[in-house]
Amino acid sequence: MKERNPWHTPLTIFIAVVVRFSFLCLNEINLFFVLFCCPQYGIVLDAGSSHTAMYIYEWPAEKDNNTGRVEQTHSCKVKGPGISSYASDPKKAGQSLQVCMKEAERFVPSERHEETPLYLGATAGMRLLNIENSTASDQVFQAVSESLQKSPFSFQGARILSGQEEGAFGWVTVNYLDDRLKQVCAVDMDCSGVTTGALDLGGASTQISFVSDAFDGSESPNNSVNFRLYGNDYNLYTHSFLCYGKDQVLRMALAHQTKSGPGSISDPCFHNGYSESKNYMTLYNSPCVSKRKPVSSPADFTHVGKGNFYQCQELVKSVFDFTQCKYTQCSFNGVYQPTLQGPFGAFSAYYFVMNFLNLTDTSVPLQSVKEALARYCSTPWETVRTLPHPGIKLKYLAEYCFSGTYILTLLTEGYNFTSETFSKIRFIKQVSSDAGWTLGYMLNLTNMIPAEAPDTPLLPHAGYVSHVCFLFVFYLFGSLASPQTCLLLCFHGNLVPLAIIFHSMT
Ligand SMILES: O=c1[nH]cnc2c1ncn2[C@@H]1O[C@H](COP(=O)(O)OP(=O)(O)O)[C@@H](O)[C@H]1O
Ligand SMILES: [Ca+2]
């Protein structure tokens, strides 16, 4: 006769079942917390040529694959100019970040500070400073790094992004926000049609990035970036034009008008009645124009506006070189560009300017957009200046005619958008998070976008609740039925040590 197992008593079975339920509960509570509580954070500082902005991102702390949605929860604009403007006093560049960093300490829960990665990426302003004076650029980085190391976050370094990275991460952001990346693509199917191109206009550089059927990277490998995201391969065309941000193009346009060193210029890109004294040294103090400085000129010149869009357009065209192209086709300055494809999201200064001018509706024909801008440019400065524009700096106000003209000229003459393709552009500021390279940069550095599509989708809330209820009932009835079923259920769970306790019962 089989000897009775001494562990096989109602009390031990009861204890085992209770212990099993406790572990099950802990497991489920853990899953619950992972899904709905205790999010993770990441901080990115965008050190642009005109200013620095800090973005805080938040996402659910998910266990196995990083598929949780990343959202921007807070942003902070650093007071003062971009870090490249502190070349003569680098310490101040570090100090300038402190107010926003203190703000970050309040927005990220203190228990998460230590594990929150903090990145600083600098763009074209620092690229230009690095060309002009690499020692000064190093000193600025030293100062900002020292300042950020003092924060309680996990500082991961400050560096200059290449133009290619800036363009590519802007594209990742736009497509992540549009939810374009997770679309399932059959084997051998071309997924390029389903992504959105990215147009980023900064103060010192501008980027264009898109996926095109006509582009395989062979004609111009420098413009090619390959991604594998969620199981899809993307061959991205991207180019960054240094000096073609709107502030540097304004310098180039002024340099064009002042090349003979006159005491006064009559500028079609500024409103009639506008008149300001400007300094030659300040104007030519940038590698984008420094070589063109007139040999003899007075210290200052008077910048007078005459408000003529069509003449302004001609002036702006003079900053582009359309004479050389060694490829099958080019945008400008001899840079290869494949045929435009797909919808485009235009952000940063594209949005600020077109939004101010009330020209973000691209279903309006391009010709009408130009006519509206021509009317705006011919408005006298006195009228523009005195109209109520709450919170808009006078400097921006004076420049919107120029900036709008530059945007339309860059898009149509530079990138070859036609009346038809212009309607495929969306001017965007935000789609739950700000459009810009920062989100894409952080997604990449935290490995948040897997190369392969996740096997199982994240349980939605309703799915999670029904999962817990089902398991509870299943375990309860199963365990009551027999100790053997209870053992099986232990193996089904992930608690092997508990299964060992049951071993002696069988
Ligand atoms: O409210 C606004 N109106 C017009 N332009 C703006 C406004 N806010 C920012 N900008 C412009 O957007 C551009 C942002 O460029 P950023 O500082 O990112 O330079 P980068 O990307 O070339 O390094 C600058 O030209 C800045 O003047
Ligand atoms: Ca920028």
Topology, please?
Layout: H1 10-36, E1 40-47, E2 52-59, E3 71-77, H2 90-96, H3 98-107, E4 117-122, H4 124-132, H5 134-149, E5 154-160, H6 163-177, E6 197-201, E7 205-211, E8 224-229, E9 232-242, H7 246-257, E10 264-267, E11 275-279, H8 280-283, E12 300-305, H9 309-317, E13 344-348, H10 349-356, H11 366-377, H12 381-386, H13 394-414, H14 419-422, E14 425-427, E15 430-431, E16 433-434, H15 437-445, H16 461-481, H17 483-492, H18 496-503
Bound molecules: inosine-5'-diphosphate and calcium ion.
Describe this structure in words.
The protein has 506 residues and is α/β, with parallel strands linked by helices. It folds into 3 domains: 10-36 and 459-503, no CATH class; 40-160, ATPase, nucleotide binding domain (Nucleotidyltransferase, domain 5, 2-Layer Sandwich), CATH 3.30.420; 187-437, Nucleotidyltransferase, domain 5, CATH 3.30.420.150. 41% of the residues lie in helices and 18% in strands. The chain has 18 helices and 16 strands. The protein has helices at residues 10-36, 90-96, 98-107, 124-132, 134-149, 163-177, 246-257, 280-283, 309-317, 349-356, 366-377, 381-386, 394-414, 419-422, 437-445, 461-481, 483-492, 496-503, and strands at 40-47, 52-59, 71-77, 117-122, 154-160, 197-201, 205-211, 224-229, 232-242, 264-267, 275-279, 300-305, 344-348, 425-427, 430-431, 433-434. It has a 6-stranded mixed beta sheet with strand order 8-9-7-6-13-14. The protein has a 5-stranded mixed beta sheet with strand order 3-2-1-4-5, sandwiched between helices. The protein has a 3-stranded mixed beta sheet with strand order 10-12-11. Strand 1 and strand 2 form a beta hairpin. The longest helix has 27 residues, at 10-36. The radius of gyration is 29 Å and the shape is globular. The model is unreliable at 456-466 and 485-506 (pLDDT under 50). Calcium ion binds next to loops. It catalyses: IDP + H2O = IMP + phosphate + H(+); ATP + 2 H2O = AMP + 2 phosphate + 2 H(+); CTP + H2O = CDP + phosphate + H(+); a ribonucleoside 5'-triphosphate + H2O = a ribonucleoside 5'-diphosphate + phosphate + H(+). Belongs to the GDA1/CD39 NTPase family. Its main location: membrane. It comes from Periophthalmus magnuspinnatus. The active site is at residue 166.
